[in-house]
Structure formats: structure tokens, C-alpha cells
Design brief:
Layout lengths: L1 H4 L28 H15 L5 E5 L14 E4 L5 H11 L4 E7 H7 L1 H10 L4 E6 L29 H4 L5 H6 L4 E8 L3 H19 L4 E7 L3 H4 L3 H15 L3 E5 L1 H4 L4
Parallel strand pairs: 1-2, 1-3, 3-4, 4-6, 5-6
Antiparallel strand pairs: 5-7
Helix pairs in contact: 2-8, 4-5
């Protein structure tokens, strides 16, 4: 990339642009953390040396254009069907590293059955699940993960569990399936949490490389535009509020996954 090329020969490059990312300008809103997670995935793929054998799957949602940012093979699935498409790709080409990149409106709504069944079967795929508690692309409607009392365009009085049910806790659900071997929930709200999330993503990919079973990293994210907040306030709000409903931590890690050196 141009940034690296400008480094004088007598200087050491300590932080560069991931080879697995393209140089395309982002379409995400200011303060959106999709871009942060994109970079973490790209860094992990570069560090593991698997770009040439990796295939990403993106369905409908804010990340529908993820293929514009990752410099590797990518396909687009119908809304909610990324796990099904990933299953087909992995079974036809078991030597490939296949991952899905899904939002909460996709994975936890129309795609609930797809992800639960993929986890239950122990499909050798990796899922990166971005949870920002709202439908971002379509105008800020209530999502399955919208917090109790949270105001959205379709819940102007705040989410009421008596009408809309409770926020769906996908990591807890996936963790009880026998085919899942690594399920964790992280956040990208500050430098320590970003580093922790990267380590989780790396372990999830290593789980697939080792052919151990299904792995999912849920990442609590922000949506400043639809939350009607600036980027900094959104980060603070996520740390203070989202983590109460969606506690951080690892919900399942088998001994074989634990033994992997991330």
C-alpha cells in the first residue's frame, strides 16, 4: 500500500495496512465499528497466512458490501442464509476457511434457524456476529437484540417485553448446542477490548483450521446514527448499557479449543 511505500528505508514499520483489506473508502457511518471489526478480521487472516484459502459470506444488512473491503473471495447470501451458504461451500471445499459476517437483524431474526442448526450440526465454519441492537441499514427499527426500553423507529415508546419479548441472547443459545465448540461475546469500545476481540477472532479461525467444530464471536457494536448519539457517547452507552443485557465473556470453549495457541 501507499502508506508502507512511503516509509524510509532506515525506519521500521510497526503498524501497517492489512493485505487482506482493499483501499476502498468506507460507506459506513462515522463512528460505526464495522470498520474496526473488518480490520481485526483482516489482521487475523494475514497473521494466520490463510487469505488465499479464505471465503467470506455476507448476507443482507449494513455489511452487505463487505466484499468491497476484503481482498479475498467473497459471496453474498440471501437475508439470514449466510450459514447455509457457508455450510455448502465448506462441505464442497473442506480445505477452504469459510466465515460468515452477520448483523443482529440478520442472524438473530430471519436467520435464527440457520445459525442454530449450523451450530448444532457442528459445521466447520466461523461466524462473526455484529450486535448493535438495531436494524441499521433499513432505518433504525427494533431488532431482536434491541434492549428493554430502548427507543427505535418502530418502538417509539421503548421496547416492551410484554409486546415484543425480551432481547434475544444468541451466544447463550448457541453455546448449548452440542456442535458448538467456541462461543464468546466481546466488544470493541476501547483499545483493551479491541485487542481482546482480535484474540477471540483469531481463536475462532484457528478452531476451524484445526477442524474442531462451530465457532462464533459475537461483537457488541455501536450505531451512532440510529442511536442518535455521537461516536464517543455511543461507545460509552454500549459499555454501560449493552453489557448489562449481553454480558461479556466466553460461554463455551472445549478443551481442544482451549489448547490452541492464539
Amino acid at each position: 500500500m501507499g502508506i508502507q511505500a512511503a516509509i524510509p528505508e532506515d525506519m521500521e514499520l510497526v503498524y501497517g495496512y492489512p493485505a487482506s483489506l482493499t483501499a476502498r473508502s468506507t460507506h459506513y457511518c462515522p463512528g460505526c465499528t464495522h470498520g474496526v471489526v473488518h480490520r481485526l478480521i483482516a489482521e487475523v487472516i494475514d497473521e494466520l497466512g490463510i487469505r488465499g484459502q479464505t471465503i467470506g459470506v455476507a448476507p443482507v444488512g449494513c455489511a452487505v458490501l463487505a466484499y468491497d473491503y476484503f481482498d479475498m473471495d467473497f459471496v453474498e447470501a440471501s437475508h439470514g442464509r449466510a450459514p447455509a451458504m457457508a455450510t455448502g461451500i465448506k462441505r464442497v471445499s473442506p480445505d477452504k476457511i469459510v466465515f460468515t459476517y452477520q448483523g443482529d437483524g440478520d442472524l438473530a431474526a430471519i436467520g435464527t434457524a440457520e445459525i442454530v442448526q449450523a451450530a448444532n450440526r457442528g459445521e466447520r465454519i466461523t461466524t462473526i456476529f455484529i450486535n448493535n441492537a438495531i436494524y441499521g441499514m433499513t432505518g433504525g427499527q427494533m431488532a431482536p437484540t434491541t434492549l428493554e426500553g430502548m427507543v427505535t423507529t418502530s418502538s417509539p415508546a421503548g421496547r416492551d417485553h410484554r409486546i415484543a419479548g425480551y432481547p434475544v441472547q444468541m451466544s447463550e443459545i448457541l453455546a448449548v448446542t452440542p456442535g458448538a465448540v467456541y462461543i464468546t461475546r466481546e466488544i470493541v469500545a476501547d483499545i483493551p477490548s479491541i485487542n481482546k476481540t482480535k484474540n477471540a477472532i483469531k481463536r475462532a479461525f484457528m478452531t476451524q483450521i484445526a477442524d474442531l467444530g462451530f465457532a462464533c464471536v459475537e461483537v457488541l457494536s455501536t450505531c451512532p446514527t440510529n442511536w442518535n448519539m455521537d461516536a464517543w457517547k455511543a461507545m460509552e452507552w454500549a459499555k454501560e448499557n449493552m453489557t448489562r443485557t449481553f454480558p461479556l465473556g466466553t460461554f463455551k470453549m472445549t478443551d481442544a479449543v482451549k489448547a490452541l495457541k492464539a
